[in-house]
Structure formats: structure tokens, C-alpha cells
Write a structure and sequence with these properties.
The longest helix has 19 residues. By secondary structure, the protein is an alpha+beta fold. It starts with 17 loop residues before the first helix and ends in a 7-residue tail after the last strand. It is elongated, with a radius of gyration of 26 Å. Helix content is 41%, strand content 16%. α9 links the parallel β3 and β4.
């Protein structure tokens, strides 16, 4: 047996540890045994988590489909596998099965101010203070994620442009829309709203993001910078 396999994974060189390699290279770079070892977590005095993982795979002909049909007692019977480990393995197998039948997440299109308003109104119509959100989209205007950037007072909220850009980059967005509410019911933008819109527009241009709109939401109406020719 290779001497390295007798060591605890914590004693391995950092670049060889499955968790570090997953973070650095992605889960797809790991073998079935390495992925399973992350679920197992820690091994025994005799075996590392990778050793135990390979024992589990070996019992089921190194075939994940066969492992997916295993009973709890069959997994628990493997040397180095305890109750918690067997439960983790079966839970992971079940999650994999459920993913196969899960309905893909819907990503609504946010290509117009009306769509943005209708999407955000339920979240904003009853707010007593201002909130500022961004909608992050792909190149087909499909919503990737909506993010609340800040929450403030009755008449304004402070917004950090750096946070907006960071969220867009981290979520691989190519289109961005800004949304905030006016609890007063006034749809017309303030001078601060205009200045904020220009700042976001400049930052998006620098980062090659398309800033599609800034929509002000009230209970029953909205204002769109794009529709009013101000973007």
C-alpha cells in the first residue's frame, strides 16, 4: 500500500486534499472516491476517508448506479463505515435521485420595465422605508438573481456602487437593472436618484455590463429611466 494512504488526509499536502482541490479546480476534477471521501469526512485510525470511500465503491463494483441501489445495512457493513457515514452516503444518493426528477428553476424574462415592476411590486408595495435592489440577468434578459443592496429611510437609501458591480461579476451577469421603491407614492425621481443612476451607468460601462433600466416602484405605478429616455 502507498505510504501516503496510511496518513490522515489532514497530513496530506494541501494541494492533494480533496476539499482543497474541489475549491481550486471544481468538483468535476475529483474522482468518485474523492467526492465520496468529502461526504465521509474523517476516516479511522487504520484508514483515511479516501480509503473508506474506495472500500465503499469497491463493495459496489465501483459503480455509482449500483451504489444508488444499496440498502443502509449493506453500507453499514463495510469496514470503516459508521451510522453517520452510512446516513450521509444514502442522503447524497437520494438527493441525486431527486435532482433527476426536479423541475428546472424558472428564470423570468425582465426585458421591460413593466415586467420588472410586476416582479418587484409584491416585494415592495407595502414597505415603509426605501429599499434598493438589483436584478441580474443573462444576455437573454432571463433573471439570474435579485439582490437587495441596501435598506434606508423613508425618503432615501445609501447605495454602494462597488457592491452592485461585485454581485454582477460574481453571478456572471451581463445585464443589470436597478429597482427601488418610493414609500411616499411619488413616482418622479429625485436628484439623488438621477445621480445614482448616472453612477451605476458609468460603472456598468467600465465593466462592460448592460445597464438596462432603473425602475422606481410605488403601490400602483412606476417610473422607468429607460422608458423616459434617461438611459
Amino acid at each position: 500500500m502507498n505510504t501516503a494512504l496510511r496518513l490522515s488526509i489532514k497530513q496530506w499536502a494541501p494541494e492533494d486534499r480533496p476539499t482543497e482541490r474541489l475549491q481550486r479546480l471544481g468538483a468535476e476534477s475529483l474522482t468518485d472516491g474523492e467526492l465520496l471521501s468529502i461526504l465521509i469526512g474523517s476516516g479511522t485510525q487504520q484508514y483515511s476517508a479516501v480509503d473508506v470511500a474506495n472500500k465503499v465503491l469497491g463493495r459496489f463494483n465501483r459503480n455509482l448506479n449500483t451504489l444508488g441501489k444499496a440498502r443502509f445495512d449493506e453500507i453499514l457493513d463495510i469496514e470503516g463505515v459508521g451510522t453517520q457515514t452510512a446516513c450521509k452516503i444514502l442522503a447524497a444518493v437520494e438527493l441525486g435521485k431527486r435532482r433527476q426528477i426536479a423541475t428546472p428553476e424558472q428564470h423570468p424574462e425582465m426585458s421591460t420595465a413593466t415586467r420588472i415592476y410586476n416582479h418587484m411590486l409584491p416585494k415592495m408595495q407595502d414597505l415603509a422605508t426605501e429599499e434598493f435592489h438589483i436584478l441580474l440577468m443573462n444576455n437573454n434578459y432571463k433573471l439570474i438573481k435579485s439582490v437587495k443592496i441596501s435598506q434606508g429611510g423613508i425618503t432615501e437609501t445609501s447605495v454602494d456602487i462597488r457592491i452592485i458591480i461585485r454581485e454582477a461579476v460574481l453571478n456572471n451577469a451581463v445585464i443589470l437593472a436597478a429597482v427601488h421603491n418610493h414609500p411616499s407614492g411619488r413616482t418622479s425621481p429625485s436628484r439623488q436618484d438621477d445621480e445614482l443612476t448616472k453612477s451605476i451607468q458609468r460603472a456598468c460601462q467600465l465593466m462592460r455590463l448592460h445597464f438596462s433600466d432603473h425602475v422606481i416602484v410605488t403601490d400602483g405605478n412606476y417610473y422607468s429611466y429607460s422608458e423616459n429616455g434617461k438611459l
